[in-house]
acyl-CoA oxidase (Nocardiopsis alba), 1314 residues
Amino acid sequence: MSEQAPLTPNETELRGLLDGRWAHVRERARDVVRGERFAPVYGLSVEEHRARTLDQLMALTETDMPGYGFPESVGGSDDVGASVVAFEMLVADMSLMVKMGVQFGLFGGAIKALGTDDHHRRYLPDVMSVALPGCFAMTETGHGSDVQRLRTTATYDPATEEFVVHTPDEAARKDYIGNAARDGRAAVVFAQLRTPGPDGLIEHGVHALMVPIRDEDGAALPGITIEDCGPKAGLNGVDNGRLWFDQVRVPRTDLLNRYGDVSPDGTYSSPIESPNRRFFTMLGTLIRGRISVAGGAGSATKAALTIALRYADTRRQFTRPAADGRPAEEVRILDYLAHQRKLLPALARTYALHFAQEELVTGLHELSRSEESDDRAQRELESRAAGLKAVATWHATATIQTCREACGGSGYLSENRIPQLKADSDIFTTFEGDNTVLLQQLTKGLLTDFKDSFGDLDQLGLAKFMAGKVFETVIERTAARPLIERLIAAAPGRGDESSLYNRGWHLELFEDREKHVIEGLAARLRRSKKDGSDAFEVFNQAQDHVLEAGRAHMDRVALEAFVAGIDRCGDKATAKLLNRLCDLFVLSVIEENRGWFLEHERISTSRAKAVTAAVNELCRGLRPYAVPLVEGFGLRDEWLGAPIALGAEHRRQGDRD
Amino acid sequence: MSEQAPLTPNETELRGLLDGRWAHVRERARDVVRGERFAPVYGLSVEEHRARTLDQLMALTETDMPGYGFPESVGGSDDVGASVVAFEMLVADMSLMVKMGVQFGLFGGAIKALGTDDHHRRYLPDVMSVALPGCFAMTETGHGSDVQRLRTTATYDPATEEFVVHTPDEAARKDYIGNAARDGRAAVVFAQLRTPGPDGLIEHGVHALMVPIRDEDGAALPGITIEDCGPKAGLNGVDNGRLWFDQVRVPRTDLLNRYGDVSPDGTYSSPIESPNRRFFTMLGTLIRGRISVAGGAGSATKAALTIALRYADTRRQFTRPAADGRPAEEVRILDYLAHQRKLLPALARTYALHFAQEELVTGLHELSRSEESDDRAQRELESRAAGLKAVATWHATATIQTCREACGGSGYLSENRIPQLKADSDIFTTFEGDNTVLLQQLTKGLLTDFKDSFGDLDQLGLAKFMAGKVFETVIERTAARPLIERLIAAAPGRGDESSLYNRGWHLELFEDREKHVIEGLAARLRRSKKDGSDAFEVFNQAQDHVLEAGRAHMDRVALEAFVAGIDRCGDKATAKLLNRLCDLFVLSVIEENRGWFLEHERISTSRAKAVTAAVNELCRGLRPYAVPLVEGFGLRDEWLGAPIALGAEHRRQGDRD
């Protein structure tokens, strides 16, 4: 991209490209989620908001949304991709988004993934109709991220053919459980499964069971203690609570027994022998929630950018003096470079992540339909989901914050929606996996193709592994690999001689950075191990390097997805505009990380300065297209619900004339 | 700092150093702001919160706090520094902090600064007692940042010796005005002053008048329309509103006439001839609000860091395997490098900004007491206030966000205070001057020692000026200049040969960066002007460079203040600890900006990598002192009001054993 001739992007084409494979699901959501019942509101009390959210959830049961993710055998449409896309469309109130995710995705999803036909038949229809509102009771107070060490117990009693579910101490109370404080009637409870053996209890690790928690009237059942988590920064339409179990008995058949079962006499059996592998297989079936959160973060980001960019395109501040025959006029704030720099690189990254999300959802969807299990594909999907969830939610937090500031005092008023988007999405960086933990998990996945060999993801295991094996970098390939390789092959090689806008150079540079960071990390871990250093310390001291590797990987993944997305675009002018936007994504990533590129002599100092100049140039060139580009997201005006995004500022200025 | 031997910092010494010159004011606040009446609360409705905040403000009138900033002639103690410090101590509820700032700082402060003895006598006692709750009605919907162009008019009518205050259009309505929606009885209204002349009205620019807005019963007075801004992201204890004036008449004597007066016959007079200079002089008297916000942002940051670091010091997650005879144990999250990197560089910067704030308050205080006016000192103070407000509030927003994430789900619960700190302080980056505008203002101040020559701060004027004059860099000097120069003189010179921990090298590097960025900017502006480029475009295209210059300046200012602060420390071990913290501040700034340092060949690539390693090393070395360092801030436990910061996690873990 060197010239900046005006373009006429095609709106329909752009919308179609962004809507992607599940365009029909998006269109359906645009059709269904409207009117007073779904409109964004603010200023509700916690109880009012909870009641409204439940009412909205009930309204969704009149649509086909609840069935997307469930088997046809129980009345669903068995379209996992659709279930994730539907989740992200509920941006009009993110409490509804999350409440829906808890009911159908986490609670229903766990029954589907960890249960067997009997559970599906008995429970899923009531899950879909919300006749059985339920909880996903995994997280404990003492162990948020470290699921493997949770402490709730489920002990089998052969005498009555029941499991006894119990909370042994405060660390083991279930915490932050959605649907628990008000609406949930049952919970999928994760607990350490124990069966009687000749020498006492035998531990089988974490398993999940269906446990009723409230009666028809909403009262806690005997042995169940429920506490409200109380008000939160956001998402107050979701009733998070705490659960304690005091020797609560459930029938043997309510163990979700796909990956581990107990016979009437107490004999444990599992299709997966290694307890460690079993644990990670079970967790792996639950990644839909994580992928959904990445998508929801994307929607919140898009909504905030739509509001901020529409406002910046109309809001005027300070006067540009008359010059060159042009009269003095108040300047639209989006005409300021500083304002462009706040919002446009964020918009470019939002596009990149959108395409990466589409690829991820497709991957999940395909894997869910494949008959035979593919361990490597599953593992790659898990790594990708971990990484994308982390970068997409951090991007949401940073971008929505920037949008708040870009809208000044207007962005602080509840009526303009941004405060709610900020507060609601804020938890995304730490729920469904803490981002820092997830990014490490991604890097560990990248470090080796033989994850099973060290399996338990702990720091010691990894360092040991690194010491013993020849390292092999695994650059996972995105969908558009042949295209990517063609572009790289056409690049004029390293160094300063290629154009700053050469896509092949971009791709090669990002790939090179990822490879170098990962190889450097592997070498560092191996070296320290040889020194005989303490494995925990070795890994801990490299933690910044570990996180850097994850970020470098995700930058490459996002770029490749962006390139592949543009390749699918049928309209030339639209593709050209998207290529400019992709240039901005790439060059702003290089600018942000130019310390690294300079340190490692990947770019010269003059090239680094040229990158900054090019980012400025691209911002200026893209400024006229900022609003059309956010319109491409197709968020309904009523979902935005912000006067400053809906013509209030323009009308006010009109009044003045 | 190369060795990392254990230190025993002295708590009393540290507290005394941080409490600084107004230690007695801080102690008094610790004494007064306690108990149920001042305790942090959450979950209140907007109206409940407003009532509580007013009640707290009334409680403060029983102390000497309201009088700090007012003349002795009206019962105050004429201690401006104390008034700023008292403001920042009200962190138990930032709504109270801001409400107090509106009443005593903005409303009362404007009467004091812009009014004369008669106004002081008539109004200030009632301001201090809150018998007259008032508003500072400057901001208009159409012109938030561009105060000079506000549109409310105050037209003199000699027939009745009154001013007619009027809102000509929607752009001119007063917006976001604190105290307006519920409690205010009067407002200091900023308006374009006009007097009748032989050929129609003569414009005199922006002036301020006292305008009553509500009667004794709280009803809006005739001609006054008041609207509630409604719920906001935070600060809901402050009743922000909108004001319209329909030909409202006020007596001639209610013009705050220190800088411009109108005689009974309508003749305008002013001690300052240039309207432009008059405008900026009037605005300049109001910088106390901006300085207070910088301090308040500091307090919010300290509170969030105190909560997050105390929690991180007790919270455990994931297990460190047994090694070297040490048993396996769950790791405290502050022992992870990634967690240290989230919080400790932010803590170091918080210290640096604390000392910079103390210097700024001292500067304001001294200037307020000096008999003769010192234009240069005043201008430097304004630049410094603009810059510190910008960097301190951005730092608050970023750090409190990080603290939220560092506390995981606990950080999202309202009971743990961080959500409120985040939401309340969020507006700080854009009120009392939008940060981006302020940082530009700072740079413009730095660009020349002759601000009056281009005066009006617009972009054209500046570019014109740059083209015509020889550029002279003005590195403003901080308090400890002789010390700084001694340290720089002792530095072994540029390049890699000096220790990474050599303070002289740090100081020189920061100064060199600032100088280079500013000189480069000046050259760029001058060059473009010679080309005959459009002045607005020239400046706009350099806007990222302009902001970079402001940031570079403030990094140097913060470092010098930190160095000067340590120099005042009487205890050797405490000073040593603070020197380590200062190293972390410096090296994390270098790391963050290493792109620039490398691009401009200020450091080598190997030195850049060594800086990253040193930041890691410093984090590890400072980890044991993190909690003592936040205790130094002296925030009362009851102000934090967060169970996770008050032993809940520790007790829970104890229960388990």
